[in-house]
Fold this protein.
Amino acid sequence: MSRPADPHAKIDLLRAAESVFVEHGLDNARVEDITGRAGKSKGAFYLHFGSKEDAFRQIVETLIARMASCLDDTPPLVDGVGTQGAVELLAAWRERDVEIFEFVWQNRGVMRLLLEGGKSAAFGYLIDEFAERSRVHTMRTLAWGVREGIFRADLDVELASLVLSGAYDRVARDMVKRQRKPDLTKMFEQMQRTLMYGLASPAIREITDPLVKNPRSRRSR
Amino acid sequence: MSRPADPHAKIDLLRAAESVFVEHGLDNARVEDITGRAGKSKGAFYLHFGSKEDAFRQIVETLIARMASCLDDTPPLVDGVGTQGAVELLAAWRERDVEIFEFVWQNRGVMRLLLEGGKSAAFGYLIDEFAERSRVHTMRTLAWGVREGIFRADLDVELASLVLSGAYDRVARDMVKRQRKPDLTKMFEQMQRTLMYGLASPAIREITDPLVKNPRSRRSR
Amino acid sequence: MSRPADPHAKIDLLRAAESVFVEHGLDNARVEDITGRAGKSKGAFYLHFGSKEDAFRQIVETLIARMASCLDDTPPLVDGVGTQGAVELLAAWRERDVEIFEFVWQNRGVMRLLLEGGKSAAFGYLIDEFAERSRVHTMRTLAWGVREGIFRADLDVELASLVLSGAYDRVARDMVKRQRKPDLTKMFEQMQRTLMYGLASPAIREITDPLVKNPRSRRSR
Amino acid sequence: MSRPADPHAKIDLLRAAESVFVEHGLDNARVEDITGRAGKSKGAFYLHFGSKEDAFRQIVETLIARMASCLDDTPPLVDGVGTQGAVELLAAWRERDVEIFEFVWQNRGVMRLLLEGGKSAAFGYLIDEFAERSRVHTMRTLAWGVREGIFRADLDVELASLVLSGAYDRVARDMVKRQRKPDLTKMFEQMQRTLMYGLASPAIREITDPLVKNPRSRRSR
DNA sequence: TATGAATGAGCGTTCATTCAT
DNA sequence: CATGAATGAACGCTCATTCAT
């Protein structure tokens, strides 16, 4: 009966809000910029969001949720894998990293916003939570790897998880600002090579070392 | 232009501004909060700073400058060191890391502010610059290490520098929020052990591995 | 112009508007509150009323009109009644007062709104008009009473009408806020006794005094 | 040292606010109207008042306080006066009434605002409180008068106080809208004559009645 | 020079009213 | 006719900056 709700309205507003927030941060974003960019009225904004902060929260929470489900899609850490499948495991991890960073690239706008804590004082906790979440995810994997004999038994998983997730975090921060997407596959091969050594157990290194010591042998044809 | 009469005033204002910025971020800090905390008048503030942003810039630039000089105090990378002094070198690096993070701890307030981009959109470039600066510093060291045969010849110094400085960055972000200072010496020993493996050249690892593999010596073989 | 299809709609809206206006006053009432309470759409509201103010005016005007017809139901002031029927007259007036205040009680919500000028600046004239109307009514009766020799010949009818209608006004304002309806019959007996003395002519007082002085008869003389 | 505060600023703003509030009521008054009328900036307003409501409250509370002290200046109700001094007492009351209404006339702007509940929903309690306060004052006097034998023993002081304060209230409401100040002395003589009869005890009426019945006798000389 | 009162642009939010369906 | 999404003018309040003293 009534004028049907523009089904694009909220989406348009969210997209506009996203870009304005990315550009100016939460505090310096003007609602009028958002509505202007969306081609909507100021009233329309408040039809869909309770406040500027609310819109911001929706955007970031959506991202975090999608990011979380991205992390959770990780192949489960089944016990008893042992060291045999290590090479395959490493390959699987690389693949998952590529996937996640593909996602990061796709959402590099908001991702950057998130990594910068919304450029506001009020939502700093968001990035902290997000950082902690990914650190814990990393730590869980590391602890499992230690139990499975894949990682060094004396690994300080607490610190290592910080180092690892910090490394990924920075790579993400770097990528998010680029104009062109880097070659993710190559990147994570390098990264694994760079980081694995410090983490791998001696047994695993018996296997992986040759690959690293003579990288050309992999390419020999 | 003329030298302000009360040199104490500016210092008081800077200290107050620092604490207010740390608490509320650039955008949400009110000049009145700053002057109130400093026990100065608003006029005095504008006598010393052109604007709120200006005060912020001065604070952060000072920090960055001090941080930079902290990094530059690093023992120079003299060519021709070779692999003999590797153990000493690693120890020296650890020591320098401890020093730098001691500094970070001392300045954890502003440091945290810096790491959060001032909680504002306008100064995101500051932290980017800072991150880039420390990455370049790392990269220079890595490149030197590769030339000296300390690090793997096939190391992707670009990526490795990202990973390394990211790891340090995250450790810093973590520390900056703590109530109690962690045991830095122990921390960087662990960190070196965690990271070095991925970076070290085979030749170096002949030397460093035993140090790391010690734990294995406790195992039967 | 054309007859609205759903005659119920307007009634529902008026009832809802009434309760919302009573609760929040004209200015603080939101059209959406009214339509929500009526279970109608905002469009429907503007189908029946030109504006929020219009709805308000309709409600208050209706009340005033009904109030006026209530007053006009008063037995006409036929000249030549003389002082004989004074007692009956007083009883009739009391009865009419009870009736009017019964009406006030029934409509205490809007009545209160009216007595508060709609809690808005725009309709203050409404209550003024209403007050003036009831004062004039009172004054007419007083003038008639003076002519008939029922009230003191030297009565300042202008002032007395103000005093009288003010007294009634305040009693109404008081009642309108009560939870329970007071005993109106008893109330107006008291009121008459309180006010009549000051108004009555000596001749009338010869008659009415004994009625009032009864209590004294219980005292020794 | 600093620019000295304009000592007139707050007063100017209060005067302007008063007139704007009187004209438009609390809700429809625009802060900009007030500041414009006062020749001050919007900021200046918030330098002196926390909010529009705050300014309103200050104005009304000040009035109520002054009004209250006006009422309290009433000669105390000393017991044991008896009926001898009745005439003098009545004269004293008239005098006090004149004084109070002189005050009302002086402050007819805000007074009118107060009597209209600020033309807002939020401050209706103000007028209620004020009305109740003056009713209680009246009631206290009536009760005292009954004890002293000045008023009828069977007086319903509760209702009579309502009637009396209502009468005064309406007279005030009427005066407050006039262009010219009425002759207060004459007015309260009339009012006393109108109301006293209904209240006075028989004993008192022995004294006062002659004055009323033959008003000319007082003027005969 | 130092002060803090004064300024006013700027922005978030509300809500009466309109109008496409 | 009915609906309720869309509009945008309006307004309260904040706070960086200025400037009279």
User: Anything to note?
Assistant: Residues 4-6, 9, 35, 40-44, 47 of chain C lie near DNA strand F (CB under 10 Å from a C1').
